[in-house]
């Protein structure tokens, strides 16, 4: 007998949360029966296969500390369920492929592995334990970023190199922010930072900044000819910056204690339309306009078309999309 349970996750990054789990006899497993049977596995430092499904006699997962191997499982399961809920509740999409089927997560990949990744081949995401095996890459935004690679592969499928690769990466950062805001977890409030919880730089700074991507020292704030030659995690800055500007507008702003200051490359101000509309525009463009070869000019055309369909070509929303692209030097 398997049933939907509501387990307790004692996560490292998000406090105590409710987790979808299943009961089988007197045993519980991290199998989210309410979300496509998404499963969370313990690789126990292996690098292949699935290791073992998290299971145990109680429905309590982890103790908040990385030394407890269930803790990273709890964080990963939580990130997966929040991402599922975001796509389902906000965009009406059931699962990564929209077919109601859950993916699976693997934690404790390798030793001191400082990355996480999505694989279309296994339809799964994988998390390393970070430096010193003490900062697993299982924060909400990283989980949402990786799962969104699966959504992108099932939709626009922008080729992972050149400008299309930057748009693919940015799509993961954009929905990572959207999922994190939507979750509204008191321990990990939404922000326009990527990876602020996992201390990947060892000095408390995040991996990426969406208001001013160049703050990381490598990402690009604006489009230029030749941007297709930089790493996709840096060319993504243009679209991340576009999304920030479209959501929040240009200039200085504080949100939940985080200070932002977003410049525009044309020096003209942008008035934001709010995150929900910006996310809706990006999602609809991803799923109805973007293709393998979409570059920045085509992303502009696609998002403008979507804004016209949703709000009308004379709307404030349509104008904001045009202004935000101009502000990151993507023109007609
Ligand atoms: N964590 C990285 C990402 O999702 C892995 C990669 O470079 N593909 O982008
Ligand atoms: Zn990525």
TrEMBL record:
Superkingdom classification of source: Bacteria
Cellular localisation: Secreted
Function: Extracellular zinc metalloprotease.
Family the UniProt entry places it in: Belongs to the peptidase M4 family.
Protein name: Neutral metalloproteinase
Full protein stretch here: 236 to 567 of 691
């Amino acid at each position: 007998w398997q049933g939907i349970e509501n387990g307790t996750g004692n996560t490292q990054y998000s406090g105590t949360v409710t987790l979808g789990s299943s009961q089988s006899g007197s045993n519980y497993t991290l199998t989210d029966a309410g979300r496509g049977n998404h499963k969370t596995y313990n690789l126990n430092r292996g690098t292949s296969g699935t290791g073992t499904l998290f299971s145990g006699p109680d429905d309590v997962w982890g103790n908040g500390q990385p030394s407890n191997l269930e803790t990273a499982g709890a964080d990963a399961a939580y990130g997966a369920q929040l991402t599922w809920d975001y796509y389902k509740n906000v965009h009406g999409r059931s699962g990564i492929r929209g077919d109601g089927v859950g993916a699976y997560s693997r934690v404790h990949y390798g030793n001191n592995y400082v990355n996480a990744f999505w694989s279309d081949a296994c339809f799964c995401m994988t998390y390393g334990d970070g430096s010193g095996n003490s900062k697993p890459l299982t924060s909400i935004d990283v989980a949402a970023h990786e799962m969104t690679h699966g959504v992108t592969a099932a939709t626009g499928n922008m080729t992972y190199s050149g400008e299309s690769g930057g748009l693919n990466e940015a799509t993961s950062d954009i929905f990572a922010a959207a999922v994190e805001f939507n979750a509204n977890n008191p321990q990990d409030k939404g922000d326009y930072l990527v990876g602020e919880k996992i201390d990947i730089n060892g000095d408390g700074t995040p991996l990426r900044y969406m208001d001013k991507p160049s703050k990381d020292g490598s990402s690009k704030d604006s489009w230029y000819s030749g941007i297709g030659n930089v790493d996709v995690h840096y060319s993504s800055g243009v679209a991340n910056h576009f999304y920030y500007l479209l959501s929040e507008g240009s200039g200085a702003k504080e949100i939940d204690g985080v200070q932002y200051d977003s410049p525009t490359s044309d020096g003209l101000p942008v008035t934001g339309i709010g995150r929900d509309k910006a996310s809706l525009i990006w999602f609809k463009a991803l799923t109805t306009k973007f293709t393998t070869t979409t570059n920045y000019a085509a992303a502009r055309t696609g998002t403008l078309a979507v804004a016209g369909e949703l709000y009308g070509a004379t709307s404030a929303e349509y104008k904001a999309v045009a202004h935000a692209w101009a502000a990151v030097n993507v023109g007609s």
